[in-house]
Predict the structure.
Amino acid sequence: MRKPMIAGNWKLHKTLQEASDLISGLIPNVADNRNVEIVVAPVYTSLGKVAEAISGSNIKLAAQNCYPEPQGAFTGEVSPLLLKDVGCQYVIIGHSERRQLFGESNKLINSKAHALADVGLGIIFCIGETLEERETEQTFDVLRRQVRLGLKNLREDQMKSLVVAYEPVWAIGTGKTASDEQAQEAHAFIRALLTELYDKETAKATRILYGGSVKPGNVDSLMSQPDVDGALVGGASLKADDFARIVNFQAQDS
Ligand code: 13P
């Protein structure tokens, strides 16, 4: 019942020309895939160009961030409405790089979630523990806090367009993927938490993506885990062939 989502987070990579090349390399390689919701998240400056390129295809557009206010004196920021206007259907919020490098709090992330829900944009809501937090056995406390505060006062009907991305910080860009068991354990915990905070139906329907060094070589077994509903891919989404292979994953019987 949960359609898998594979999303590529291009982070701060690709000029306009490079973004065009990447997307035109990707489109034909995933065109036949109707079983997966495919999303790409380029930098702000490439959104318009990528939106044009994917028009009529099975690929959707996401932004990597937003500001929670609709307009005003907020130099350098971009609002949810403008992202919708340029063709985005999703926005990533709460990425660990925003939390760590730009000091984003759970409160700010929660206000972004509300602002996005208010304009009807889909949300890719990222959470995840650091290595130190994992080693000191705080993983579940951290995930609980991030989910409770990040989703505060978000209604059940608004949860329908929200996807959770579990991205352990120690696995991002390190080549050190969480094991299938570690991913499944965290995802099952998050789903149980959603049952507590909402209800069984919402928890069952909410997709939980795994992110952190997802590659063509490990996607199949990760996607075979019962609570892994997709992937949020960084580095490997920058190469059309690699990303296409991830989109066209082959879940294995576990
Ligand atoms: P990598 O796939 O490069 O580890 O990045 C994961 C990520 O942060 C996606 O948002």
